[in-house]
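Translate sequence into structure tokens.
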Amino acid sequence: MLQDVAVHSADTPTPDPLDPSAMRAQYRAEGLTGTELAPSPYDQFARWFKEAATSGLHEPNAMVVSTADAAGRPSSRTVLLKRFDERGFVFFTNYGSRKGRDLAENPYVSLLFPWHPLARQVVVTGTAARIGRDETAAYFRTRPHGSQLGAWASDQSTPVASRAELERAYADLAARYPEGEQVPAPPHWGGVRVVAETVEFWQGRENRLHDRLRYEREGAGEAWSVVRLAP
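Result follows.
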């Protein structure tokens, strides 16, 4: 993406570089047409994800997960996608965290992949459910030893008295489970699968006339329709 170039006279004040209203980017990316889309949003996501990963983009699997509690109060945070297929998008979390509590009360969720260097976004809306414990345990075994201990040490989203308290909890676990010893998956920690109802592919275009193509699930089946949205 290319920045706009502005020409100023001697009497024109220099824009404040920290003023959000003066921050602009002009997109010159190629467009996205309906004829080039894959049959399913998961196949199309795989195409774009591969391009994001091979472009050198830092953490292309980082996504913003937005949830809401039973009263409809929203919250968002960045989480790492760990797998995806025709069944949905999977991430892992402490089930007692705020997002875990939200999803237990309200399964509707939104995922946003902000691939800014490529002038692309993918927005997923759908419903979330916990994956099976066998699937969670299999993934947990692939995590680095320190990350396994961290899942036990952190009571995610709850107040902690100090950094020292958190580090003491980690040290106690490191003594109990030294490097090389198998760490069991915590019962309060595991995977969440988001089954998509809509998946929007956003491609930045010149003059803010962006391409927005959204897959929409047709009924309870596996068929999808695609609509173009005004930018």
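Note: Residues 97 and 157 are 5 Å apart (CA to CA).
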